[in-house]
Design goal:
The chain has four helices and no strands.
Length: 122
């Protein structure tokens, strides 16, 4: 499989997990009668979350179009930033642990793939 396609597909899988983890978290909060506690200003917290969530969204596209050197570095850096976001925003609910675990495995595969990626033309 082409490395760019593989990386892009892995980012899609991560995004799907992130989306469903959030949907499941909303369902849990609704059942628990809105017990969600977010420290600080909610608008600021959601603004920061929007910045971080756009990293994997953009990596779906960038993994396919960036040249080899930039692509390789971008995938490694974006994986570490995304991992920090996942762990930092995490909870101890079973669904989140499962989704975050899968996302962590996929991010590790992205880092490994980008690290080992050798462009024959470069």
């Amino acid at each position: 499989m082409n490395v760019k396609v593989k990386l892009s597909t892995l980012w899609i899988a991560i995004m799907m997990n992130m989306i469903f983890a959030d949907i499941l978290s909303i369902m849990v909060e609704l059942v628990n009668k809105n017990t969600l506690q977010i420290p600080g200003n909610i608008e600021t917290a959601m603004g920061v979350a929007a910045i971080f969530i756009n990293i994997p969204i953009l990596m779906i596209y960038f993994s396919r179009v960036l040249n080899y050197k930039i692509n390789r570095t971008a995938n490694i850096v974006a994986s570490f930033i995304t991992l920090v976001f996942i762990v930092g925003g995490g909870s101890t609910t079973p669904h989140y642990i499962i989704c975050a675990g899968i996302e962590t495995i996929l991010l590790t595969i992205i880092v490994w793939t980008a690290w080992k990626w050798v462009d024959i033309i470069a």
